[in-house]
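TASK: fixed-backbone design
INPUT:
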């Protein structure tokens, strides 16, 4: 895997309006119909203005953008990542996990995002919360055992109070499969992720991450699998084909492509490449018939 960089807090919103408008048109032309917006510091929270950076949008600015995207045909899903590995956007509160003030801040920002987006789904992140992935950080904090679940259930409840469906990354299951399957509610939409180019002859780690799609299917979870150009430009096409063959139509709600880069000039070729992979995978899906896409039942 690529070496993880040590996170640092941005002091300015990393966004270029003209590049964004060009990119969303690329996505629309390629057949993309949903955008998951990693809101974080992009919104100026009225309850916690201290979380803003230079250029953070007001409620009205974000609300106008959501409406524009919806008019273009996109379903717009907000995402706030509450994993301790990815919550630097919470600034000092990221060092207050599982305290009364932390719970209040989490509720406040979820409430505000829901007021702006009025979402059907809400992505809570919750990926990669472990020491191994934070070992290069200056400050390491993780939740585990019952505390991880306590906090997740709290966040889930905050989202459901706005009639939105909670959505999370599924990699907690890789190290805790029995616990995950026992404690993860079926109503939570799952995004297991696999960012690599190989789909056979894998080592134990890659086998676990890939076969988690099968395990989620076997246990009745709805899925929206995630691929990426992070490791391999051919990943998304291969992953789409794998998931179409291994996840039943009733549980496969779509596919998600990620880049994990900002909407600024140096990264636009990567974003354009991502849009092209979506178009290619969508075309492949449209060319398949139901017997091809239902192979999992025949393989069992």
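OUTPUT:
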């Amino acid at each position: 895997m690529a070496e993880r960089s040590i996170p640092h807090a941005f002091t300015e919103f990393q966004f270029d309006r003209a590049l964004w408008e060009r990119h969303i048109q690329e996505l629309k032309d390629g057949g993309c119909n949903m955008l998951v917006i990693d809101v974080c510091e992009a919104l100026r929270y009225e309850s916690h203005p201290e979380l803003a950076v230079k250029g953070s949008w007001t409620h009205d600015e974000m609300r106008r953008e959501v409406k524009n995207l919806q008019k273009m045909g996109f379903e717009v899903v907000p995402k706030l990542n509450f994993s301790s590995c990815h919550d630097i956007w919470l600034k000092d509160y990221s060092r207050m996990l599982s305290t009364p003030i932390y719970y209040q801040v989490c509720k406040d920002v979820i409430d505000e995002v829901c007021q702006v987006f009025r979402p059907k789904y809400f992505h809570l992140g919750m990926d990669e919360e472990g020491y191994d992935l934070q070992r290069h950080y200056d400050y390491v904090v993780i939740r585990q055992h019952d505390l991880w679940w306590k906090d997740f259930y709290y966040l889930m409840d905050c989202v459901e109070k706005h009639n939105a469906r909670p959505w999370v990354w599924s990699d907690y299951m890789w190290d805790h499969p029995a616990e995950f399957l026992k404690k993860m509610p079926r109503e939570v939409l799952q995004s297991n992720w696999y960012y690599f180019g190989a789909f056979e002859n894998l080592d134990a780690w890659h086998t676990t991450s890939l076969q988690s799609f099968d395990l989620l299917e076997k246990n009745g979870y709805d899925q929206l699998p995630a691929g990426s150009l992070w490791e391999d430009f051919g990943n998304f096409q291969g992953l789409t084909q794998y998931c179409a063959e291994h996840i039943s139509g009733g549980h496969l709600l779509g596919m998600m492509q990620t880049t994990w880069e900002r909407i600024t000039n140096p990264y636009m070729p990567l974003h354009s490449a991502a849009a092209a992979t979506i178009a290619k995978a969508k075309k492949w899906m449209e060319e398949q018939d139901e017997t091809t896409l239902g192979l999992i039942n025949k393989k069992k």
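COMMENT: The longest helix spans residues 268-287.
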